[in-house]
Design brief:
Length: 319
């Protein structure tokens, strides 16, 4: 059966969030009318919401967030026991269970607020017009606005955990990608078109990226190491890129549009993600560079570098 057969299914693992879910389902919402109006005009009454004895919604959310974080940490620890290649699909299924669970929580909360409102309309809260003790400057909200704000805050917090789970899934995919890169040699390269006649201009590109006032590549990147990334058939360690992914996208795009480099493969971004890595040694996903044009905050610096390389190559660019 193997090790994974002893692990929980996605449905079973979603139960780790039951404590947080029950905390919301069992929440006690009380409020105080802060202005005296006719019960027929209840929708305009000013009220102060109180959650499980917490003085403010913010205080309640701190408590609730801690429960969610505790559950999330337990879940990720369990997922880490699963074989790496199986994790993305597992997390995808788990996310669906959690979205259903969280939708149910939000629906329950909505019904709870509506029920409380009906109780108030019935006159049960008649006479509760005093500001509670401890509220020197109370935050006045009408009931509908206060309950809507509360539901939005809780829903946002729940969605954040689903998003965190998606980020965890993406991290697993990157790890898998890194493993695959290490197993297989480079199938294609970025090609510096003038390597045979003007190798010094590639040296210049290395020097300008390395010695910029805010370096684009790591200081440990020697010129030989750098040049291997632009020579077909050269297996090399990835170049550590210190700029942003948008900076790298801009550099590669401009070098290509100025006909300084070209690609052996039509799928250029997989080649780029093999040739460059982040400062922490991890790799970008190819989807990071695909799609609409990126905006580099350091486009001016990169334009200056490319202009210097173009000057170095000179009239050869026109051929």
């Amino acid at each position: 059966m193997g090790k994974d057969s002893l692990l929980k299914t996605p449905r079973e693992l979603s139960s780790y969030f039951n404590e947080a879910a029950d905390y919301i389902k069992n929440v006690k919402v009380t409020y105080y009318l802060l202005s005296h109006t006719n019960t027929d005009e209840f929708d305009n009454n000013k009220v102060l919401l109180n959650f499980n004895g917490h003085a403010t919604l913010a205080s309640f959310m701190v408590d609730f967030s801690k429960k969610l974080t505790y559950s999330f940490d337990k879940v990720t620890k369990e997922i880490s026991k699963i074989e790496l290649h199986s994790r993305p699909k597992y997390i995808e299924e788990l996310s669906q269970y959690l979205e259903d669970k969280f939708d149910s929580i939000n629906e329950t909360l909505q019904q709870k607020f509506l029920s409380e409102k009906e109780v108030a309309k019935g006159g049960t809260y008649k006479g509760h017009y005093e500001v509670p003790v401890g509220y020197d400057q109370p935050l006045y909200k009408d009931f509908d606005h206060g309950s809507t704000k509360a539901r939005r805050r809780i829903k946002k917090e729940l969605k954040r955990k689903v998003k965190d789970l998606e980020i965890f899934r993406e991290e697993c995919l990157v790890q898998i990608y890194q493993m695959e890169l290490k197993k297989s040699p480079f199938q294609s390269s970025i090609v510096y078109k003038f390597n045979d006649i003007l190798p010094k201009c590639l040296n210049l590109l290395h020097n300008l990226l390395l010695n910029n006032k805010k370096p684009f590549i790591d200081h440990s990147t020697g010129v030989r190491h750098f040049k291997k990334a632009f020579i077909p058939g050269s297996h090399h360690e990835p170049i550590t890129w210190k700029g942003t992914s948008d900076d790298l996208w801009y550099l590669i795009t401009q070098l290509e549009s100025n006909k300084i480099i070209e690609f052996e493969s039509k799928k250029k971004w997989p080649v780029v993600t093999q040739s460059f890595c982040k400062s922490d040694g991890s790799f970008w996903s190819t989807t990071t560079f695909s799609g609409k044009p990126k905006i580099s905050s350091r486009a001016k610096d990169l334009d200056d570098i490319i202009q210097e390389v173009k000057k170095c190559i000179g009239k050869k660019l026109e051929n």
